[in-house]
Amino acid sequence: MDFRCKFPSSLRVAGLMSGTSADGIDVAIVDISARRRTVIAYDTVPYSATVRKAVLGLCDPARARVDDVCHYNFLIGRLFADALVRTCREHRISLGSIDLIGSHGQTIYHIPAGRKQGKDRIRSTLQIGEPSVIAELTGITTVADFRPRDIACGGQGAPLVPYSDYVLFGHAKYSRALQNIGGISNVTYLPAAGSIGQILAFDCGPGNMVIDALVSMITNGRKHFDAGGAMAYRGQVSQPLLEKFLRHPFFKRSPPKTTGREMFGVAYSKQFYEFGINMGFGANDIVATATALTAQTIADAYRRFLPKMPDQVILCGGGAKNRCLVNMLAERLPECRLMTTDDFGISSDAMEAVSFAILAWATIHGICNNVPSATGASRAAVLGKIIPGSGGKRFHGT
After folding, report:
1. pLDDT per residue over 122-134, tens digit each?
2. pLDDT the model gives residue 354
3. Claim to verify: residue 261 and residue 384 sit in the same structural domain
4. For 45-90, what is the HEC assignment?
5. Distance (Å, rounded) from C-alpha 372 to C-alpha 263?
6. Which one of 34, 147, 169, 247 has the fewest beta carbons within 10 angstroms of its own beta carbon?
7. In Å, what is the CA distance from 249 to each residue of 213, 330, 392?
């Protein structure tokens, strides 16, 4: 069925997102039309310690069980729906005023390079957070599972945010790099007065993922991240340790490229920690060096792969609040003006959730919302699976 024109062009859309750090569910409620996008509410609903531990366990092939994947797919869907209901209640927004939901879900495994199957190489990805549960519990039509269609078109299924970055931040005069620093760091380069076909976007490497894992190891799980970069500020960067881990082949690989916990997860972080200890460095020094790794790999990626250095670097994600990391990045990118999405009225924490609201809006209007120059897909495509809502929030004719 063709769903285009079944919905008005102006919609109130909720974007739901949980990143590779699995800290919790980001909820953004956005009023979207062809010309305007206004964020009216944002919140983060944390996972319980039990759920977070279970989700991270699902990302580990040595520990994950198929019955747990089945169970948590439906549980996370319920938690996503609950997070939206809670956000609406706290911001005094009627759930009935929301026309559409865009849900990224929770990635538990991503194999962008693919796996050999006979003569073929099969790329794959898996996000949980069952959208049928979200649609049923909220009554709102839900668009989800955005990555698989891009992979079916020969792409890597990521990054997905370049479309919304272009919609929100494309500029006639300034070239811009939208730098997200979540669990993984990824950049979208927008040339001044450029078209969507000129976008370049890719993952730079670990963002907060290694830092968070190290902090958790060092504090025996009492802390999950380096708030404000406090530990890194107290440490000294070890150049030998930094240089050793800068040799990872991912950093020199040309785009399109994506990565995740499979490459820079627990095993990588444990190796980083053990090498640091064996080299005689203290805990704060190890965290400072991991912070420098994130900053250095971002700066190196710009110089290796961008057609020119951007006029402005616009930061978002949790790493934008790590002052030590931001200062390290500024030192390595002296020719760029560093800003955050907060300077443009969008919380740096909210950006990815806002992006999935915009992606869902495009899906429902039949607008291609992948960026082949970023993902490597053979063609532009409309991403996402549409789950009709119940009651008044169904599509006409469904």
Report:
1. 999 999 999 999 9
2. 97
3. no
4. EECCHHHHHHHHHHCCCCCCCHHHHHHHHHHHHHHHHHHHHHHHHH
5. 23
6. 247
7. 21, 25, 52
